[in-house]
């Protein structure tokens, strides 16, 4: 399990810090790589990930690699282009923030979204999505547009034994607060 993140560098020397943090079998987090770039873009993520994948030896899905991101600018497309068969998860905190920005900010909907994300079976996920539909058809439609394979445990592959839903691991190893 590897998390990717980008953060603003503030102060005299501006830029972006791109980082990669891993999780080991004991849920311990460790920094793997970082780079300072002028801007966070598809081009900078491509440059960074090509070097990372080559240096670390990410060859394909047979190695069991799982990536989690906050859906940064261009990052999803770069992962899809470079490693189309790898599992790519999205941070549920960031999904929820976008859910709120789309007008679905009630506490009840938040609880149902998180229940759907934490569900471990398809019937449980379907029941939570039915609950969301009963509460708000637009909220349900918004979530249906975001494939659950990226954000719900019920849709994650069973090979990797890490079921984290958050990508905060990058933030705590590379400077904490943004």
Description:
The chain is α/β, with parallel strands linked by helices. It folds into 2 domains: 2-91 and 156-173, Nucleotidyltransferase, domain 5; 92-154. It is 40% helix and 19% strand. It contains 7 helices and 5 strands; from the N terminus they run βββαβαβααααα. Strands 3-2-1-4-5 form a 5-stranded mixed sheet. A hairpin with a 5-residue loop joins strand 1 (2-9) and strand 2. The radius of gyration is 17 Å and the shape is globular. InterPro entries: MULE_transposase_dom (IPR018289).
CATH topology of the largest domain: Nucleotidyltransferase, domain 5
What integer is the average pLDDT? 85
Helix coverage percent of residues? 40-55%
Low-confidence stretches: 172-178
- The secondary structure category is alpha/beta
Going by CATH, the architecture of the largest domain would be 2-Layer Sandwich
Physical arrangement of strands within the biggest beta sheet? 3-2-1-4-5
Largest sheet: 5 strands, mixed
Q: Please compute the radius of gyration using only Cα atoms.
A: 17 Å
List the domain count as a whole number. 2
Number of strands: 5
Number of helices: 7
What is the CATH first-level class name of the largest domain? Alpha Beta
Strand content: 15-25%
Cα(first) to Cα(last) distance is 22 Å
Overall outline: globular
> How do the SSEs run, as a string of H and E?
EEEHEHEHHHHH
């Amino acid at each position: 399990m590897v998390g990717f993140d980008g953060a603003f560098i503030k102060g005299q020397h501006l830029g972006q810090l791109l980082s990669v943090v891993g999780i080991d079998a004991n849920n311990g987090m460790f920094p793997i790589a970082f780079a300072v770039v002028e801007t966070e873009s598809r081009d900078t993520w491509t440059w960074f990930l090509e070097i990372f994948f080559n240096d670390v030896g990410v060859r394909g899905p047979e190695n069991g690699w799982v990536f989690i991101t906050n859906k940064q600018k261009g990052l999803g497309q770069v992962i899809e282009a470079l490693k189309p068969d790898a599992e790519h998860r999205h941070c549920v905190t960031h999904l929820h923030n976008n859910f709120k920005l789309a007008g679905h900010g009630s506490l009840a909907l938040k609880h149902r979204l998180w229940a759907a994300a934490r569900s471990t079976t398809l019937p449980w996920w379907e029941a939570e999505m039915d609950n969301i539909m009963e509460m708000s058809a637009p909220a349900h439609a918004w979530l249906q547009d975001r494939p659950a394979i990226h954000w719900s445990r019920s849709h994650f592959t069973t090979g990797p034994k890490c079921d984290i839903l958050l990508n905060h691991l990058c933030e705590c190893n590379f400077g904490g607060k943004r």
